[in-house]
């Protein structure tokens, strides 16, 4: 379906000019037609009124001497007037005395005289006038006329006015076809350039300046904006290339660390530990790679979106481009906005540089985490004397980057306890997994409400309890035992063996792992109980 707003700007200008020309002539033509109609009707009224008076004056003798034949002869003179179709002379008593009907056919005049005066009835004009002799009324003259002649004359005028309006509209369209290029040509060039930049990312495109009006100012501003974008894009491209090199180097280091962890796990026969460690490292590594990719895409495309919006704004105002740029509050700000965009590009480049530095620090932090995990990648089953607070803090540090990113508040409730002998490798992996699960459970909470609580307390002479609590999504009652089953998970990206492996590791150490929750939305607590004296 064709819509005028979607038509090319050159045809909008042509049609607009033609319509304006026609719109100016139509009221004039209508006024002329109305005036002519009034004049024709007025002339007809005057002419027939005069004729009625003459016929009435000529009929006085016939009425006085009672000569109907003379009256009919007098009425027959009306045959010379083409619009008169019937006439009649009425006696003093108002009864029809003599009549005339054009062609001898038709119903003829009324049988009784009507009210003096004239009126229009449908397509006919009727007039009744008194016949007087020596100031005494002796009868009435009636004339009925057909308006066909008037209508024919008006049709001629309508045809004439319509022809003049059509010719004027055609002439206006031909002139607009010639003159519209002065306005549409630079705008079309500007639109083509914006389209080429948006589609092909060709920032070498420039628009030639043809006028010194508001469109010329817009062309200068557009060219300056593209120049600034081109310079900024080149700088951002260099920064992106440097980022890719750094990410590639850090990725290689992390992959090497992963390979070392896999080899360690393989040697000691602890596949579940290696899987959990690699899962934790892999998630963080994927986050870093995703962040790097997003930064790279933003570096390449962040300004293109603004350029497309400017092009869309110009396209929406194709029909009134000059007025929009000169008078509209938004349009008049476009040159200023383009100038400010150049400054914003420079600021954005500085901001991206800061982001790259932050990403570099995160990569260094990941390297530190890998080193920390490697320090615990010893042989499983070997008990060492450990400070439980230090062990819990190490597990927290491994998840620290995600906890800080998600703005999770951490509280600690540690009881004073001396170092104890435990399997630090397995214990750390259990705590890392529990803290990671709590972090995911807090994902749907408001940032200010996310709370993670860590507790360490003795439960007797030979046992100790380590708790990881959150106020997140909670656990349904029917899932409190199923969470430790192999393959069971409530997360779309979960694998279902983290808690299963942790529960097995706790049993291997002579302890237990338990889940507690009041239900959905009530948070959850995981309790790890260990024997202080070692495995039973």
Give a verbal description of the structure.
It is a single chain. This protein is α+β, with helices and mostly antiparallel strands and 536 residues long. The protein has three domains: 4-178, Beta-Lactamase (2-Layer Sandwich); 187-374; 380-531, Heat Shock Protein 90 (2-Layer Sandwich), CATH 3.30.565. The protein contains 13 helices and twelve strands. The two termini are 83 Å apart. The model is unreliable at 265-277 (pLDDT under 50).
Topology:
Layout lengths: L8 H50 L1 H5 L3 H9 L7 E7 L5 E6 L15 E5 L2 E10 L2 E11 L1 H32 L1 H20 L13 H55 L2 H46 L4 H6 L7 H42 L8 E3 L1 H11 L1 H6 L3 E6 L5 E3 L1 H18 L9 E8 L4 E8 L27 H11 L3 E5 L7 E8 L5
Parallel strand pairs: 7-9
Antiparallel strand pairs: 1-2, 1-5, 3-4, 4-5, 6-8, 9-10, 10-12, 11-12
Short description:
With 536 residues, the chain is α+β, with helices and mostly antiparallel strands.
Q: Rg, please?
A: 50 Å
Number of domains: 3
What spatial order of strands do you see in the largest sheet?
A: 2-1-5-4-3
Average residue-wise pLDDT: 77
In helices, the fraction of residues equals 55-70%
Q: How widely separated are the two ends?
A: 83 Å
Question: What's the number of extended β-strand segments?
Answer: 12
Strand content: 5-15%
Structure annotation, total helices: 13
Shape: elongated
State the secondary-structure class: alpha+beta
**H and E string:** HHHEEEEEHHHHHHEHHEEHEEHEE
How would you characterize the largest beta sheet? 5 strands, antiparallel
Relevant terms:
536 residues; alpha+beta; Beta-Lactamase; Heat Shock Protein 90; 5-stranded mixed β-sheet
